[in-house]
Fold these 2 entries.
Entry 1:
Amino acid sequence: MVTALPPNTLAETPDLLAVLRERFPQDVLETTRRPGLLGRVVLRPEAILPVCRYLRDEQTFAHCAMVGGVDWKETREVVYHLWSDERKGYLELSLRVPAEDPHVESVAGLWPGANWHEREAWDLLGIRFDHHPDLRRLFLPEGYEFHPLLKTFELHEPEPLEVKTRHE
Amino acid sequence: MSEMWINMGPQHPMTHGLWNLRVKVDGELVVDCEPELGYLHRGIEKISEYRRYNEVITLMDRCCYVAGLSWEHVYLMASEEALGVSVPPRAEYLRVMCSELQRLASHLMWYAAFVQDLGLMTPFLYGMRDRDLILDLLQSFTGARMTYEYMRVGGVRNDIPVGFTDRCRKVMDWLEARFREYEDLCDKSDIFLKRTVGIGVLKARECIADGVTGPMLRSAGVPRDIRKDRPYSVYEEIDFDIALHDGADVFGRYRVRMEEMRQSLRIVRQTLDYLDRSPGRVLSERIPRFVGAPSPPPGSESYILRRAYPKGVGFSAIEEPHGEALAYVVNEGAEQPYRVKFRSPVLINISAVKDYLIGYRVSDIPAIMGSVDVCVGECDR
């Protein structure tokens, strides 16, 4: 059995995505429907702040649930999950920044709750958030030179133990 | 009076884990604070990229040591979406039962630790004693008391033993009677009320802006519960209420958790009824081979037969004992996930600490931070 989906989210999905496409024709690059989500919206990185402000103020997305990143080697993806109490669902925003200079405008000014999510993404993935109130490392010490969730940071597995039995 | 910074942590009875709360005090008054985390950062998200899907489950138990099964659940729901695996209904009921037993164990652990922080020793012993009954139940079918490794991609490892449902019902009845005793101990204690009512207030508007979730949010009167709002697993078929309070203070959080435990009893009883009347598979028949088994050597027959699995992205949300937990899993067709990302509710609840700690007294800090229910394992990951 596949995880049950709330019935109301699917009914409202095309509506919200169409509104976003109409409102930001240049900035919304792609919209897809995904089960379990209100939708997935791919944005131009420069547009994140106006789109988020619109979603928060006019589309009831009052809760920024998660900001995370994925390292795709040439680019780095920043993924936002926003929650609306009225729509009872998550909206996924995604944008890609070049790996040479990964930076995007911070949304911590809109949702104070995004502050530590962005600090975590900076700490582990090296994505800079411009105009962030306090962009320090969250888990690793200041001055640590690596961002460990990057694919270039290789994890060295311990050598497998050679177990010898008595009869060998 | 002159102000000064005090380190509460990394080793401090208030922290319940390994983190540091720096507070700036003016006499007894807290005027500023600064949490420092990372003492327990083990890089679970990084290690997950080097483990097969089923091997990550081991890490999930270490994510939160009081709610391992909840973290297994959120991780597996996202992985199953990414891999395109479905779960048989009986396994879904077993998972919900596990999650709710885990919520009971977690809240009882919280109750024991929190009330002891306030100086009441008896409830600590009561809470730990009754949590042990739940650990006994979990041990009887998972084989472990804290690190269960029970759920699997596509279901759960094994079914419950014969006679388990009756034993579980007995424990639920026992706990229901105990909860009244707990409440008598606390609600009628002047010391408890003086230290909790009106302390650590975080109103609904601030909760939402700061991203605070879970019992802290519901104690401010916001009826947000992922189990109700976006029912996952089989929660849609289960009857229960959202625990609410309007105090927005430490006392409100205590009341919400007590009520949530009662609701968990209701949910567990309903899942037990289902498990009694509907036998069936607990592990899906169609699971990609590579999720757990070690790779066969190159050149061998099964190595050649192993097809690449379709790519996909999985996202899941659950109501963990501490709040809203999310998982985001990217599957690039390899044996290991390409990226695993979690949202820890405790991390974000701590990030709002300035809003509910400043202005109170140093002696209130254990009560306030206790009511947040800090679990550093999932916070630092």
Entry 2:
Amino acid sequence: MRTFSSGWWRVVELGRISRDLFLFKCMLLEEYRLQRSYVGSFGSYFFPLVIFILSFFLVVIFPFESTQSSSVIDTVHLLMSIYGLAVGGVALMGEQVMTRRLGQVNLLLQLPQVQNISFRRTMAIFYLKEIFFYQLYSMVPFGLGLIAGGVVAGLPLTGTLLVSLTVTMVFGLGMSLSFAISALLTRSRTLGMLAVVLIALSVVILVWTDLVDPVKLVHPLYFHKTADLVWILASFIEMVILSIFAIVVMKERVTSPVKRYRSSLGTISRLLPGNDRKKALLAKEWLELWRSGTLGPVIAGFLAPLLAIYGLVYLLNRGLDADIRFNVVFFGTLIGYFGVMTYSWLNNVEQNESLDVMPVTVSEVIATKLRTYFLLTCLVSTIYIVAVGLIQGEPILIPAGVLVGLSTNFYVAYVTARLTGIRTNTMLLDAVTLMKFTLLVTPPLLVLVVLSFYLEDGTLWSLSAVIIVSAILVLAGLLFRMGIGPRWDGGRFGF
Amino acid sequence: MAAVVVMDVFKNFGDLKALDRVSLKIREGEFFGLLGPNGAGKTTLLRILTGQLEQDSGEVKVLGVSSSERLRVRESCGIVPESESPPSFLTAREFLELVCKLRGIKDAEERIRRWFTFFMMEEGKDVLCKDLSKGQRQKLMLSSAFIHEPRLLFLDEPFINLDPIYQRKVRDHLDSVRREGVTVFMCTHIMDLAERLCERVAVINNGRITVMGTIDQIRKGKGEGLEDIFIRLVESG
């Protein structure tokens, strides 16, 4: 019997199309059922509706033809590219599935272990399924929301259609880039990290030296500015090339070398504060982060969007000569938002199924995750705020920036933990949870963003208001912290 | 005193009736076997007993404590779950250290050494759990359930993935702790082991207990083996 055990070109072999289509359909069903099993039918059905409502109000509140239209459009593109980057790293997931148990969940991705289909081919189908699923589940409703909001705001249909298209493309580009990098990382961690550093450095050098207009680097966005079809074609070709590259680079046989480690749980425990149980759980968390190779990517994943936003704002301040200046306090408000991804990542390192038979509650583990999260993010975010404050020549605003950064981080982390427990990425696909999260997080952060604009005047009232709002956020965070136990202690670690 | 009391327990998963008015009582120091075909409700009942799952109705008490007080139940019991799943990125030794810390065991070193010796796992103690073989992971889960010397053991297919040598060692260990007064509740498919170890067994099918008693009571003097009785009971519905 012929098998697909070697040769990446066999991925495109004809004659297996119907089988692959069937597998694609099964994977799509699997994804849908997985989401539904986590968040229930209601949550999974209404998630697209929530996305629709959010994008609808985005256009109604910030119509693209207003003075800030360009910054709104640019920010939406940036956020969607980050979203694409966040969900595209499926090659790493594939590696995990093939090299260790992920709790009780078995995925079709594991088929190559026992059936006559190659890992590359399975990953290619899985990746296509991911694209299709995310397009259907979030990008299509996002686009429809933009169009509907545009009709209400009286914007021309062509304008909102164009933004929908370019946002979808930028999301796809983010996904394919992430897929390519994750595939490279599975081949060689060093090579993968080198690629990330090279890409980041190239972008910084090109932009810093004014060699390239930064918008030109994001081809769908450049298409939006110029309406030159070449750029949309270029974006599509880039996506295809990156995806093919990922499949070519991917290892066919996924194995991990057996390493030995000296016992470190006790040593690390002794260095940590708290009682024996807390210390042991925290030591476990750090060992898992370190040995799974997740520590570096988690810190980079927290810092990268913050740097990207800074880069974007820097360009806007420079290029548009806008009236509004984004100061260091504004950057402080963003920390909590981007921390959500980091907290979610911490929850995906290990399933903790074994703790189901131990005298440990889910809230104890959530508390451990939060301690780890704060240890990771507080130092990084404070350095970020201080650096931005110094670069922008706003040393006097640095203390307020640090205060806002720490308080929003504290508040958003506890809201996220209270709402999503140890299943953040799946719980945020639940419509009700997403709606609650948006309502709880967005208004206070918007208030702080608005207040940050008034701090420029150096008035006492604006500074007092920032301090009061920050204090309220800390108190509210403590309230959410108290709610974690009652909400999650009845839950299980395993699926 | 009864170690485990289950009264009229119902559990549904959507349309699926997983447990249908299950009642049983296990006295302290008894070795009790729960037998049943795949999907009969064995693991569901074990999960309810250990507080991993909540029943829809009915009462469950473990060592006099309601199973809804899951922490207290888990503190006093040793549990081996259906699938072996120690944390991927801890070594075998670190996993047992973690268990000892969580259970507040003082002489952890001594106990860990004892169980590594028992299962002859010295060689694999510094290997990450994800890289251990299934058999080694099962030995680790058994060690983690035995290490705090609990009064009650809940074991879901404890002999799975073990070779005959370790099946015998574990069987002998269970037999000896039972003689010391430890209660054992075991779900299994292996009729031979159930026949050798269990003082009483219950057969569960489609969420209902169809028969319960000592092996002799179930045989009713007909001289049938437990396996034949099991197949007859399951096939007759």
